[in-house]
């Protein structure tokens, strides 16, 4: 019966009340605060003027015609397509038709696009400031305490991450210090926020970072996009559609369905 | 002419918003139950592999219950046409793909599971 003796460390049970619970509660409350701060700071989208609304809606009209063409009869589809392509190519829906050939304005100088930039800045700030504060708070008060033991073994490589500030060489990497409990909370509290705040909450910074890392959807009406070029591309897309209707051969399908 | 698959999709279209709503509901359920499984595993004092097996088993049971109680009855009784059967069975009427349905829960809830597992293991076994 030669077993490796299990390391046991006698810890003061007060550690739970004075380290573990405060960190957890602070993390949860910060998440809630961040959610409501984001809600409060988000500015309502400014109403667009008539001409730029027309520009956007007519582009959307072309796109929805392209994706739903199969519900139209051939005749009405062709009429719509001809109208839209003519208007697109002549630039009838453009916001200011005389600026057709020129390159788009620099988004940094355009005052209307500064709002979007400010919104992004605010979000970044709402993420960075609480994280920095909590990290330094934990480092200042709780560094060097061993508070818990992970229920699963880890390799030695995790030691420097989990036991930052604990200078004991031979300790099992399963023992974790307060800073690693902070990281665990950061990853795992998403479900708690889902439960508390509803689904599309802004509480977890992890979800937001994931969203930023993912493939960015091309901004359709963002600053820097040339509407004339978008119109021409869309006209080309519409022109190559080979029309068919869902009602083609519907009698055949109906009869087949009846026979079975 | 369009391909057969394309035509099927146009005749009986899938609404993206509903698919997203279904996935989100399932995601909510899974992350909540994963945290509760973590509480269970921590109180039972499971360690290493047995804890992860516990999680695997119970999240599969959860998904199976959703399938058996919520999806299969309505989907089968509404007599799936040949089109839906060809595209991957009854699940494809409600979710993007069956693979997604069966395995997405494991990754969704894992972080929450580890959090509550560690917390309750620490509190009980200390």
From TrEMBL, chain A:
One of its GO terms (cellular component) is EMC complex. It is a multi-pass membrane protein. InterPro entries: EMC3 (IPR008568), EMC3/TMCO1 (IPR002809). It is found in: Membrane. One of its GO terms (biological process) is protein folding in endoplasmic reticulum. The chain crosses the membrane at residues 15-33, 127-148, 179-197. This is ER membrane protein complex subunit 3.
TrEMBL record, chain B:
The keyword Hydrolase does not apply. It comes from the Eukaryota. One of its GO terms (cellular component) is EMC complex. Keywords: Endoplasmic reticulum, Membrane, Transmembrane, Transmembrane helix. It is found in: Endoplasmic reticulum membrane. Belongs to the EMC6 family. This is ER membrane protein complex subunit 6.
């Amino acid at each position: 019966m030669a077993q490796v003796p299990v390391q046991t460390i006698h810890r003061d049970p007060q550690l739970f009340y004075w380290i573990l619970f405060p960190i957890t509660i602070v993390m949860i409350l910060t998440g809630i605060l961040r959610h409501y701060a984001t809600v409060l700071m988000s500015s309502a989208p400014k109403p667009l003027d008539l001409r730029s609304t027309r520009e956007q809606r007519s582009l959307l009209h072309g796109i929805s015609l392209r994706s739903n063409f199969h519900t139209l009869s051939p005749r009405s589809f062709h009429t719509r397509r001809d109208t839209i392509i003519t208007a697109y190519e002549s630039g009838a829906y453009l916001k200011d038709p005389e600026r057709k050939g020129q390159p788009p304005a620099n988004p940094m100088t355009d005052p209307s696009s500064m709002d979007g930039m400010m919104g992004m800045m605010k979000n970044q700030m709402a993420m960075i400031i609480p994280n920095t504060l909590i990290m330094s708070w934990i480092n200042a008060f709780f560094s060097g305490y061993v508070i818990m033991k992970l229920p699963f073994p880890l390799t030695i490589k995790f030691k420097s991450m989990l036991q930052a500030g604990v200078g004991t060489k031979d300790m099992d990497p399963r023992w974790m210090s307060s800073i690693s409990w902070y990281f665990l909370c950061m990853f795992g509290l998403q479900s708690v926020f889902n439960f508390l705040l509803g689904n599309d909450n802004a509480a977890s910074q992890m979800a937001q970072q994931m969203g930023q890392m993912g493939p960015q959807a091309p901004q359709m009406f963002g600053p820097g996009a040339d509407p004339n070029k978008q119109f021409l591309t869309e006209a080309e897309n519409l022109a190559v559609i080979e029309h068919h209707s869902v009602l083609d051969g519907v009698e055949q399908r109906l009869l087949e369905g009846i026979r079975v | 002419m369009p391909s057969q698959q394309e035509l099927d999709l146009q005749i009986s279209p899938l609404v993206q918003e509903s698919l997203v709503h279904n996935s989100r509901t399932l995601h909510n359920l899974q992350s909540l139950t994963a945290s509760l499984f973590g509480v269970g595993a921590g109180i039972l004092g499971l360690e290493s592999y047995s804890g992860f097996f516990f999680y695997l088993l119970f999240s599969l049971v959860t998904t199976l219950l959703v399938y058996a109680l919520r999806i299969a009855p309505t989907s089968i009784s509404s007599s799936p046409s040949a089109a839906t059967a060809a595209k991957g069975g009854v699940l494809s009427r409600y979710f993007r793909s069956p693979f997604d349905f069966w395995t997405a829960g494991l990754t969704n809830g894992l972080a929450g599971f580890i959090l509550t597992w560690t917390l309750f293991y620490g509190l009980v076994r200390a």
